[in-house]
Batch of 2 targets.
Target 1
Amino acid sequence: MTGLYRSEDNQILGGVCAGIAERYGLDPAVVRLVTAFLFLTGVTPLLYLVAWLVVPRKSEIEKN
């Protein structure tokens, strides 16, 4: 699977950070820390919400 998806196995809130980490082979904790830092600076809140709505779940991709 090469596309971007929201993780259902390693999610905390919406699975966006875990999905990004799985896609690029990164540690989910690192992606979450970077996202939290950017969230506090005001950069990420809207982007995270949009990604949560637009990026499909892993199970939705596997059905097709």
Note: The mean pLDDT is 86.
Target 2
Amino acid sequence: MRLDKLVKATVDALGEIKARDIVVLDVRRMTALFDKVIVASGDSTRQNRALANNVQEKLKALGATVYGVEGGDPGEWVLVDLGAVVVHIMQPAIRQHYNLEELWGGEAKAPKRRMAGGAR
């Protein structure tokens, strides 16, 4: 399956179960192990497991291979390995702590601050 189709199908599967803050990172310049990292948030361990299951089902139905799933039992952070794409489904506190977006070359999210005198 082409990479762009794999990414789109994965993002669509996450969206169906109401994943939040879905981010797709291109990591081809950082590793030869995979091409894209997708990070998404779920509000509970139950939702995280449902998100991971939906990704697996939808991608298998399209002929993609699911190489492995980790963390499904606790469910706070579930990883789905699709070969060229690695999906991280995390609860918000876990996601904030590990900050994978910055680790994989994205920009760190700085808190918004007000400047003196009302200027922004």
Note: Strands lie at 20-26, 36-41, 68-70, 77-81, 85-90.
